């Protein structure tokens, strides 16, 4: 397989706590995987493949850590969901301590966001916490706050999954002359330009299937899809941006971080890279940077908005 780049809703902390508390009560005995002897009760239950799940109004499909689909379980008129998958979708971290009788641990995950078909998983605290930013145009992600989304992408016979995190570290206005000094043809003055510093993190990137099981996928293919910029009043936009071809560019940083690593079917990989993007913005207007969530099938919902100041 050739090397190429494939290219919203964070619930409030209070809502997470309420939902997760319910899940813990209902699911602890079903989701741990390591059990204390003598404390189990055998039951007859049913996998409920016909139940649709939505998280914050968006369709959600639980998967395990290998990307395999998980189904709700119906028992005694109660439906149980997989704790880790749903907890991650709500921006929580789920852990298990196997010592003693075993303990499930849940972190509220106030430093990450989740989006459609997404389970979010984060282990780095945000500079900004306790925020309800969703990535929508009305609730953009603040600078220096990490936003996390994940899911599975499938097309024809190719399928992959992963967890992505993005943090806008800084953004500064640059001139056409500055761009020319970076080795490009001097652009026209119809747009303003910003140099945006982005931290990009990938966890558990997995190639699930291909048309030919012998094919591989470059780890660098799990890269950000910089859609462009949009005015904060949602009236004007510019599609595009340049993340390659200059010193410190995001593409160069990703290639260095991944070192041409290729994933075979069933393999996983992770990496992080901090690099820069030349972003055109509407002249004289305050704008957001827009990044596309490739896991989201609804185009409008797939556009994540990041503040630039």
Describe this structure in words.
Helix 1 (13-31) packs antiparallel against helix 2 (83-89). The relative contact order is 0.16. This protein has helices at 13-31, 83-89, 176-181, 250-258, and strands spanning 46-47, 54-55, 58-59, 73-75, 78-80, 93-97, 103-107, 147-155, 158-174, 191-209, 217-218, 226-231, 237-239, 262-263, 268-282, 287-292, 303-306. It starts with 12 loop residues before the first helix and ends with a strand. It has four helices and 17 strands. The protein has two domains: 13-107, no CATH class; 147-306, no CATH class. It is mainly beta and 309 residues long. 13% of the residues lie in helices and 34% in strands. The strands form six sheets. A four-stranded antiparallel β-sheet has the order 8-9-10-15. A four-stranded antiparallel β-sheet has the order 13-12-16-17, with no helix packed on it. A three-stranded antiparallel β-sheet has the order 1-4-5. The protein is elongated. A hairpin with a 2-residue loop joins strand 2 and strand 3 (58-59).
What's the multimeric state? single chain
Overall pLDDT metric: 78
Taking pLDDT < 50 over at least 5 consecutive residues as the criterion, the unreliable ranges are 1-37, 109-131
Terminal-residue CA separation:
39 Å
Helix content: 10-25%
- Classify the secondary structure makeup into a structural class: mainly beta
Order of helices and strands: HEEEEEHEEEEHEEEEHEEEE
Q: Please give the number of β-strands.
A: 17
Strand content: 25-35%
* Strand order, largest beta sheet: 8-9-10-15
**Count of helical regions:** 4
Report the sheet with the most strands, covering strand number, pairing sense and barrel closure. Answer: 4 strands, antiparallel
Shape: elongated
Summed up, the domain count is 2
* Rg, Å, rounded: 21 Å
